[in-house]
Amino acid sequence: MKNSPMHKKLYEYVVEEIGLMIMKGKVEPGDTLPNEDALCRQYGVSRGVLREATKVLTQKGLIRTQPKIGTRIQPREAWNLFDADVLLWKLKVGDKLDFLKNVTEVRRIIESEAAFFAAQRADPKECKHIRACYERLAKTLVNEADYDYDTYLESDMAFHAAILDACHNDLLAQIGYTMRQAVQTARKADIHDINIQRESLPFHLAMLDAIEAGKAEKARQVSQAMFDQVWDYLPG
Questions:
Q1: Would residue 205 count as lying in a domain?
Q2: Is 85 inside any structural domain?
Q3: Does residue 104 belong to any structural domain of this protein?
Q4: Long-range contacts of 145-152 (CB under 8 A, 24+ apart)
Q5: pLDDT digit string (tens) for 65-113?
Q6: What's the pLDDT band for 181 if we cut at 50, 70, 90?
Q7: Judgement on whether residues 60 and 102 belong to the same structural domain of the protein
Q8: CB 219 within 8 A of CB 210
Q9: The dihedral of CA 117, 203, 230, 144: what is its sign?
Q10: In this structure, are 116 and 224 located in the same domain?
Q11: In whole angstroms, what is the distance from residue 59 CA to residue 36 CA?
Q12: 88 lies in some domain
């Protein structure tokens, strides 16, 4: 059946296989993929599964199907780099440190502006939620013996997501949301040193205090300083 779990699993498999092939440069922009029959044989799937995968890859800006020409790889500038899958594929095939640096640069821009607007727009309930996220984050760093990086990372991402929600700008927040999965994966390359995480904690608190006090420029500056610290600890 079209919407069965098996069908979904198959088309997602084909989407990832072709997506990774494109990211690895095994096919270049302007190249044409093999025809439907050849691709169905290659991946062991039906035409229906292949067509659904083709539809998804087209939405991601990676391919374009044209009558009498076939399925052609799109120029790199057409790729949707803010698509979560595309970001993950770039992470898998590229230099993880370079990817992490790119992610950090983008997060510095997006999240610092989100902090600025959150300080202007967050209501008391949202401020209370951001503070609760901060307290959970701080708790992960209290006892070195109980420190777990994955728990810390989850709490840290929840804190920043709460600020994105409180900025009341759907477009700005959406960029942050679409990056979140790739950010979490990329940050597995972070230095898992509790002392470094503890050094970052005062920035989180200062940002929270600025948002609660409605000090927008202060919130932005603290956020930028926090990401500058992250950058300083990246190797190379």
A1: yes
A2: no
A3: yes
A4: 147/194, 149/190, 149/192, 152/197
A5: 998 889 999 999 999 988 888 888 888 888 778 888 888 888 899 999 9
A6: low
A7: no
A8: yes
A9: negative
A10: yes
A11: 18
A12: no
The model's confidence at residue 158, banded by pLDDT at 50, 70 and 90, is very high
Average pLDDT over residues 183-197: 71
pLDDT greater than 50 at residue 1: no
Could you identify the residue written with the tokens 């076939």?
A: 70
DSSP character string of 80-120: -TTSHHHHHHHHHHS-HHHHHHHHHHHHHHHHHHHHHHHHH
User: How many residues are recorded in the chain?
Assistant: 236
> Which are the contacts of 169, defined by CB distance < 8 A and separation ≥ 6?
114, 117
- Nearest CA among 204, 190, 232 for reference residue 139: 204
Domain extent for 61:
5-78
Question: Are both 135 and 188 inside the same structural domain?
Answer: yes
Q: Which tokens hold the place of 111?
A: 């999240």
Q: How far is CA 149 from CA 57, 101, 104, 109, in A?
A: 34, 20, 18, 25
**What's the CA gap between 50 and 71, in Å, rounded?**
12
Q: Which amino acid is at 188?
A: K
- Name the amino acid, one letter, at 96: K
* Closest C-alpha among 106, 123, 100 to residue 176: 106
| Residues whose CB falls within 8 Å of the CB of residue 98, separated by 6 or more in sequence, listed in order | none
Number of domains in the chain: 2
Question: Are both 172 and 68 inside the same structural domain?
Answer: no
CATH number at residue 33: 1.10.10.10
Asked if residue 103 and residue 72 are part of one domain, the reply reads no
What tokens appear for 170 in the block?
């759907």
Apex 68 CA angle, 65 and 71, nearest 5: 25
